[in-house]
Amino acid sequence: MADTYVVTGAARGLGLELVRELVERGDRVIGTVRRAQDAARSS
To answer: Among 1, 19, 25, 30, which residue is least crowded by beta carbons within 10 Å?
Structure first.
């Protein structure tokens, strides 16, 4: 069963890389960003 994580600062830098790693291993990720236009939505 996959774990669920909330990552703050998911639009760039360490936060973005953490999101990529968690998704790659099959976990569910909820990412937050300061400005919506900084986020790239992917499925």
So the answer is: 1
